[in-house]
Specification:
Elements lengths: L3 E6 L2 H17 L4 E6 L1 H7 L3 E3 L1 H4 L4 H6 L1 H18 L3 E5 L2 H14 L4 E5 L4 H4 L4 H7 L2 E4 L4 H6 L5 E3 L4 H7 L8 E8 L4 H21 L4 E6 L2 H13 L6 E5 L2 H7 E6 L3 H9 L1
Parallel strand pairs: 1-2, 1-4, 2-3, 4-5, 5-6, 6-7, 8-9, 8-11, 9-10
Helix pairs in contact: 1-2, 5-6, 11-12
Length: about 280
């Protein structure tokens, strides 16, 4: 009987890491059956059994979650029903702790035979160490990215494996051969969530206007993580009369990081990615 895996990721960074994991698992176990939710990269790696939901699921802050509580409650129930019918051997939860830890608790109760594995541990060492005993009770194994995380979870009795950070390998695959930086190109990276873009991009536009007033030959590009975000970004550019001189590119963030001479970047995974490209 083929092995079955259910996987949950709720953000674009988790989608990228999850896609790499799924590709590796599919190589090792070609008959692996995969169900769950993630983003476009995971959907491409897993096939028809995995749904792309990150554009709707990647919200930020308590208020945004509360505004969409009914939606999240419905998705939670649908996914739990799907998992119970699928009966996977393993559930892999990728980051996204606010949702995933609650989902782990429900699966532990409803499907005790399913092994629960967490990939990319929540940064509880920084913001909520009190969650570690609960995680040790719920999970069968933690796969962590940083070596200092391993003893934190192991001391609570949770089997923990340090697997290393996949970001360097992922970025190397997207490195452009022979690319040279454009000394006049400035990258604007307002984030991958609607709320981030709404809050940060207007300030980035104003900054770009000041730079353009200082150097009229500067060029500006902004990558959009999705079609929906591209439309939001274009609307903001039109509203601020900047649509004729700031270019929007869908899904070109890694290319822009390698071509631009400098960038303004929302705090998060993108800052680390840009640093890796130098």
């Amino acid at each position: 009987m083929a092995k079955r895996l259910y996987v949950v990721a709720g953000e674009l960074s988790g989608d990228a890491h999850g896609a790499g994991l799924l590709r590796a698992l599919k190589t090792r176990v070609p008959t692996l059956e995969v169900r769950g939710v993630g983003g476009p990269q995971m959907a491409a790696a897993a096939g028809a059994g995995l749904r792309d939901w990150v554009e709707d699921a990647a919200v930020m802050g308590v208020w945004e979650v509360l505004k969409r509580y009914g939606w999240f409650k419905q998705r939670f129930a649908e996914m739990l029903d799907e998992l119970k019918a699928f009966r996977p051997d393993v559930l892999v939860l990728i980051d996204y702790p606010g949702f995933n830890l609650r989902f782990a608790e429900a699966v532990k109760r409803e499907c005790p035979e399913t092994r629960l594995v967490y990939y990319i541990s929540p940064q509880v060492w920084a913001w909520h160490k009190g969650r570690i005993p609960k995680m040790a009770r719920l999970l069968d194994e933690m796969l962590c990215l940083f070596p200092f995380e391993q003893p934190l979870f192991q001391s609570a009795g949770l089997k923990t494996t340090f697997v290393g950070h996949p970001l360097v390998d992922e970025l190397e695959e997207k490195r452009l051969p022979g690319v040279t930086r454009d000394d006049l190109l400035v990258g604007l990276f307002p984030g991958s969530r609607e709320r981030e873009v709404a809050r940060l991009f207007p300030l980035m536009i104003e900054t770009a206007k000041l730079l353009r007033a200082w150097r009229g030959d500067l060029k500006f590009e902004v990558p959009a993580a999705s079609v929906k975000l591209a439309a939001q970004i274009r609307n903001l550019l039109v509203d601020t009369n900047a649509d004729e001189w700031i270019t929007v590119n869908a899904g070109e963030s890694h290319s822009l990081m390698q071509r631009a001479c400098c960038a303004v970047i929302a705090s998060g995974t993108a800052t680390l990615e840009a640093a890796c490209y130098g």
